[in-house]
Every structure is written in structure tokens, then in C-alpha cells.
């Protein structure tokens, strides 16, 4: 008996210990400091416990930082930032912690003064500077200081967002990043291409960054571009197969955070994606869902990347495409009773769900967003064309006046087990939200869930023909709670 109890006890403890990890949300941590200098220091702590060499650039000298990172990678050196006239205290302390013996300043004295160089020397650290009179010359000199290679990255030296996401790939492969403007191949860049024997170039950015005429003058060019900075960062991660086991996220408009994030991503050979500061942008959102990425590091404080973005990243449904089908519409009102038309109730709840899913980080798609009619076949086709991960059809019920409650249906034709699991997440949450009778999860061959090949459910929220249920469906507050319940069910489904 004691042995049996011991086995049962260990089995129970094993189950308890297993469940939290199995049901965990995604992991998303923040790397930041109170200033750009402090953020660079915090990023360096994630990659280096010590460093005999460090690379320092001016806190506003983004082009210098971009060019410097592949060089820093070859030196196994962290990238640190400084104020141009005084060595920033955070950077000074970090150099001591790293036990740094050599510092390479990238950029001229307008970015990092000789006074800063002297302050570094006073720490007993040797200082070297790589600089030119322009950003093109500085990048060219950095390239010439790197190991030999036959490839280079070419980007517009004034369009910083083009270069950020390619930095890890360039660094890992030893490719220098050279600059040009939109139309002209300047002499410093052409000289570096010649002196290094560059045979192939990777051009980042569209024709607004580097036009077709200039592109054709580069050695064996290959262009990678996107419709915006977010899309470009995704396309770079896709094209070059960058690791997404821990993906870095940063604000595509906050370059101090972006460059130090790119330096850390380069150190760890990971992808870095750009987003806006308030929401996870659509393109990285879709990429995350497609790749099923679960672990993230956000670079920058809340002024740079809002807390909402971390919440979205932690949602296990982030980036998943959820097809929402509000039943009926236009000439087909559905059930009618107690002053309600089903088509209106369905659309109201669906719109609320659409908003909540979008805010939570998923990618919702509505079969209809207004009083329009689509056939059942069209609805199924729309879900398939959206490459939806889940299909949720929203309805209200009708029967005799005494019939009441909520029920959720699934079909066994496709994705039977997953559809049932989704239904079992949805049903109790809608019942709780509306305070309705629980009529349970059921199977039925309703067309939209029978012929949709992804996990699919049809929710009958309440009975329009029942006065008590109808009063609930008239309440904006309760309909909003029902939408929240379905939204929460989607997240729970992916845990």
C-alpha cells in the first residue's frame, strides 16, 4: 500500500509539474535601459561576460553602427554607444566590467570626440579609430578592416531601416555593409568593392532606396525588398533562413535600440524583426504565426516598444489567422424574435471578436463586415483562401419560446479532435459570459464546419426566440463579454 501511495504521489507531482510548462504562454522578455547607452549595455550583457575588444559608436551615428557591427562580430566585440562629447557613464562602467583592453571607435570626431577617446585611454584601454569624412568612407574603411570576402551588402546610407534586419546575416557571413545614395555609386564604395574584390552584392531596399540604374552597376546584384520596413525585415529572415528559435523584436523607427538589438542578434545568429511601437505589425505577426515562434526578446523600453506588444507576443495565438463567420446577412436575416434579427446579433459579436483578436496579436479575417449575404460555399472558400488556422462561425438560435441556452457545434469530417477541443474551450466561456444555460458541445454537419478543413466550430450564442436569452443578446456589455470569451478560448486552444 505504501509503495502504491508513493507511486501515486510521484505520478501526481509529475502531472502537476508538467501541466504549467505544457500550458504556458509564449516567452517574451525585454532588454532595455533608461537611456540608449544603458540599453546597449544591457544588450551586451546578454552576449558577453567579458570582452578584450569593444566597438564604440556615437549614440546618434546610426550609419556608423550599421557598418561597424559585422566588423565587431569578427572581433567578438560588443557594440556600445556613447555621448559624443563625454564617455557615457553606463558605457564607462561596462568597459570596466568587461575587462576591455582595446576599444575601436567607428566614426569621426563629430560623432565621438577626441575627448571621449582620451577618457577611454585614461581607463588604461588602447584606442583605435576607424573613420572617414563621410558615412560612405567610414563604411568603406570598416570593410577594408574586415577579413577578405567576395560578397558585400549595399544599402542606402540614409535609409537606416533597410539595413537593420540584414545585419545578423551579413555579420555571420563576414560581409561588409557598404553605403550609397539612391542614384549614385560614390567613389568610396566603388573603391571598397574594387579593393576587396567583391564579386556579388546583396542590395537591401526597394527602388526608392537604390534605383534600377545604380543597381545595374553593382557586381552581380541581388535585391531584397519589402512593401515597408516591417515586411523587409520578414523577407530578410525568410530569404536567408535566419534562426527564429529566439527572435528579436524592435521598433523600426527607434534606431538606437534597433542597432544594439541587431548587434546582439548577430552575436547569437538570430533573426531581428521590426515593428511599430504600439502594436505588433501585420507582417511580423504573420511570420511569427507561420513559423510558430514561441520565444522573443524585445529591445528597448516602453517608450520604444509598448507593453501591449509584449502581451501580444506572449499570446500563444499570436500570428494565427482566425476566420470569423457571422452567419446570415442582407436578404437572409436568420432567426427573428423579441425585436432582434440574428444577422445583426451575429455581426455585432463578430466585430467585437475581430477587434479583440487583433488587439491580442492574432490575425482575424471576417467573412463579412457589413450587412452582406454570402452563400455557405462562399464562406468556406473565403476561409480557405485566407489560409485560416481556425474557422469560427457565430450564430443565434431559435425554437419554441421555452428553449434557451448556448451550444457549440463541431463536425467530424475534418480535424475532428482539434475541432472538438476548440469547441470545448469556446462553450464554457460563452456560457459564463452570457449567463446562459449550458446546452453542451455537440456534433452536427452544418455546411461551414463540415467542409472547412481547418479546426472549425459553430457557436449558437443564445436563443433569440427566448425572451430572457434575447435580453442578453440586446446587451452590448454581454455581447462584448461573449466576444472576449471566444477570444480567450482561441488563446487557450493554442496553449
UniProtKB/TrEMBL annotation:
Residue intervals of the MurNAc-LAA domain: 380-491
Group of enzyme by EC: hydrolase
Signal sequence annotation: 1-24
Enzyme nomenclature, EC number: 3.5.1.28
GO MF annotations, alphabetized: N-acetylmuramoyl-L-alanine amidase activity
InterPro entries noted in UniProt: Bact_Sporulation_Assoc (IPR051922), Cell_wall-bd_2 (IPR007253), MurNAc-LAA_cat (IPR002508)
Keyword Iron attached: no
Assigned keywords, A-Z: Hydrolase, Signal
Gene3D superfamilies listed in its UniProt record: 3.40.50.12090, Zn-dependent exopeptidases
Protein name according to UniProt: N-acetylmuramoyl-L-alanine amidase
SUPFAM superfamilies cross-referenced by the UniProt entry: Zn-dependent exopeptidases
Gene Ontology BP term (one): peptidoglycan catabolic process
Top-rank taxon, per record: Bacteria
Coiled coil: none
Amino acid at each position: 500500500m505504501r509503495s502504491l501511495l508513493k507511486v501515486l504521489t510521484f505520478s501526481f507531482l509529475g502531472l502537476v509539474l508538467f501541466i504549467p510548462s505544457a500550458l504556458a504562454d509564449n516567452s517574451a522578455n525585454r532588454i532595455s535601459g533608461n537611456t540608449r547607452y544603458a540599453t546597449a549595455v544591457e544588450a551586451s550583457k546578454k552576449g558577453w561576460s567579458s570582452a578584450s575588444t569593444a566597438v564604440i559608436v556615437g549614440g546618434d551615428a546610426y550609419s556608423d553602427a550599421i557598418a561597424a557591427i559585422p566588423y565587431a562580430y569578427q572581433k567578438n566585440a560588443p557594440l556600445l554607444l556613447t555621448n559624443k562629447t563625454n564617455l557615457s557613464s553606463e558605457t564607462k562602467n561596462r568597459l570596466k566590467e568587461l575587462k576591455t583592453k582595446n576599444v575601436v571607435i567607428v566614426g569621426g570626431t563629430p560623432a565621438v570626440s577626441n575627448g571621449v577617446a582620451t577618457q577611454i585611454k585614461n581607463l588604461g584601454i588602447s584606442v583605435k579609430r576607424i573613420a572617414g569624412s563621410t558615412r560612405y568612407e567610414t563604411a568603406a574603411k570598416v570593410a577594408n578592416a574586415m577579413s577578405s570576402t567576395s560578397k558585400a551588402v549595399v544599402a542606402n546610407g540614409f535609409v537606416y531601416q533597410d539595413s537593420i534586419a540584414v545585419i545578423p546575416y551579413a555579420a555571420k557571413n563576414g560581409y561588409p555593409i557598404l553605403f550609397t545614395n539612391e542614384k549614385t555609386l560614390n567613389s568610396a564604395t566603388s573603391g571598397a568593392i574594387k579593393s576587396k574584390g567583391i564579386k556579388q552584392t546583396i542590395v537591401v531596399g526597394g527602388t526608392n532606396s537604390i534605383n534600377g540604374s545604380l543597381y545595374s552597376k553593382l557586381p552581380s546584384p541581388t535585391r531584397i525588398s519589402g512593401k515597408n520596413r516591417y515586411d523587409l525585415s520578414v523577407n530578410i529572415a525568410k530569404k536567408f533562413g535566419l534562426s527564429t528559435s529566439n527572435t528579436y523584436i524592435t521598433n523600426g523607427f527607434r534606431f538606437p535600440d534597433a542597432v544594439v538589438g541587431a548587434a546582439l542578434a548577430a552575436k547569437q545568429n538570430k533573426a531581428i524583426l521590426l515593428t511599430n511601437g504600439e502594436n505588433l505589425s501585420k507582417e511580423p505577426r504573420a511570420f511569427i504565426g507561420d513559423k510558430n515562434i514561441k520565444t522573443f526578446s524585445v529591445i528597448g523600453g516602453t517608450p520604444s516598444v509598448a507593453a501591449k506588444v509584449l502581451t501580444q507576443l506572449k499570446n500563444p495565438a499570436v500570428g494565427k489567422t482566425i476566420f470569423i463567420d457571422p452567419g446570415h446577412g442582407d436578404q437572409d436575416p436568420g432567426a427573428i424574435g423579441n425585436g432582434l434579427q440574428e444577422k445583426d446579433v451575429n455581426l455585432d459579436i463578430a466585430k467585437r471578436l475581430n477587434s479583440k483578436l487583433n488587439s491580442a496579436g492574432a490575425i482575424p479575417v471576417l467573412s463579412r463586415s457589413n450587412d452582406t449575404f454570402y452563400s455557405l460555399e462562399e464562406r468556406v472558400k473565403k476561409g480557405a483562401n485566407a489560409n485560416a488556422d481556425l474557422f469560427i462561425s457565430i450564430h443565434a438560435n431559435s425554437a419554441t419560446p421555452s428553449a434557451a441556452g448556448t451550444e457549440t457545434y463541431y463536425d467530424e469530417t475534418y480535424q475532428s479532435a482539434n475541432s472538438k477541443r476548440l469547441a470545448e474551450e469556446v462553450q464554457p466561456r460563452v456560457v459564463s459570459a452570457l449567463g446562459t444555460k449550458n446546452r453542451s458541445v455537440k456534433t452536427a454537419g452544418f455546411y461551414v464546419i463540415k467542409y472547412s478543413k481547418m479546426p472549425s466550430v459553430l457557436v449558437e450564442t443564445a436563443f433569440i426566440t427566448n425572451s430572457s436569452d434575447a435580453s442578453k443578446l440586446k446587451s452590448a456589455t454581454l455581447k462584448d463579454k461573449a466576444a472576449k470569451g471566444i477570444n480567450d478560448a482561441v488563446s487557450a486552444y493554442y496553449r
